[in-house]
Amino acid sequence: MNAAHPAGHSWEVSWSPPRFHSENTPTLDVVNARWWLFALLGLNAAWVTDLFVLGHELSAPGGVLTVLGRLAGLYGALVLVLQLVLISRLPWLESRLGLDRLTQWHRWTGFWVLWLLVAHVVFITLGYAAQDGSPVLAEVGTLVFHTDDVLLATIAFVLLVVVGVTSARAARRRLRYESWHLLHLLAYLAVVLGFLHQVSIGQDFTGSPAGRLYWWSLYGLALGLVAISRIGLPLVRNLRHRLRVESVVAESDDVVSVVITGRALDALPARAGQFFLWRFLTAGHWQEAHPYSLSAMPDGRRLRITVKALGDGSAWLRHVRPGTRVLAEGPYGAFTAQRRTQRKVLLIAGGVGVTPVRALLEEFAARRDDIALIYRTSTTGSAVLADELRHWAARCGARMFLVLGPSTAIGRFGPVLGPRHLAAMVPDIRHRDVYVCGPPGMTDAVRGVLTELGVPAGQCHTERFAFAA
Hints:
Membrane topology: Multi-pass membrane protein
Transmembrane segments: 35-55, 67-87, 108-130, 150-170, 182-201, 213-233
Number of helices: 17
Distance between the termini: 30 Å
Number of strands: 15
Domain FAD-binding FR-type: 238-338
Shape: elongated
Largest sheet: 7 strands, mixed
Organism: Amycolatopsis pithecellobii
Radius of gyration: 26 Å
GO molecular function: 2 iron, 2 sulfur cluster binding; flavin adenine dinucleotide binding; metal ion binding; oxidoreductase activity
Strand content: 15-25%
């Protein structure tokens, strides 16, 4: 059934009676993972404070100012370790919270690290200047150049400031991803230099065996997680699976699908809705890693990605030859059926954000779930994978709405993805899990509409286009 509507957009609907199953598997994985992080952070903050007090730091030279400075430094080191854990891509944590959420938390805590370290530097300098009766600037020179390993700490602080400044949105937009990533790796050097400073003059190390055991264990565990998850696991998986390009299929003038095969892919823990960081070993591009979602449910034999040419970063994929070796890091993402809490599902896709939605549709269709699908795009020609969506919708009796028109399109009930339109298309929306993937502006707007419609936050699952595309 097709129905045209005013304002230059249309709804294309494929419908048949829904089928239900009795499975209802609400999951608390996201809540549990979040509370585990909060609990561990709080517990470690309590330990740091306890070790500080037991070390008689309250009687330290320089009075209250140096006490505050050392506490700020210890808390800054603790939050820095938390940052390492957040970005370690630990599979248990990442599969529950998602790389996009962990990356946002990593960025937010990064600014806390900077402010705590600034407080550490300022209070320590003012405290010792007051104790020595010397000018503040002169005290800075004394601390940096005439105190054991403070120069190392100064270098670490400068490196973290560089990383923080280049991570600000305004600076990030001006940098190529490869340049930004190379600068960001300086943070690991800063961690090592800061730890060496803490080992040499930190009271927790020099005067407390319990403090030494605690901080060595904490840093060792965090760096070990990074080494295992970011280096060891990808290395083992790539050696085992030996991925190669099987075929390249042009979906449209500016969209291409790449089919990848390898050995023992049934042992790769990939799910529909997830993505990998892909590195195609071709001349001029082997050093680039790109996040692309799977655009078909993994079947144990092949993986498929579908990519829109957005400048030089991905247009070259059209010319990748079959047989090209591929390195992949992942799978990543919590945009999976594992997060479903209701028997009914609504999938909402915008633009090329349809790729993980297409894979999820296939998985939900295989499970015979009650599915509704909304695909928002500007024109029929830009509706990537629309034929495949219709195919799977027909197979499982899903209701499919293809909503066309500009982002400002107004329909019979207001904005085409506004609350009245969504409620008209899917009247039982409050009783569904809603999966949304698209450009950040669209995703945020739809989340706001879902809140307005009374859809519980635990039933709303999003993937930002920056990771999914």
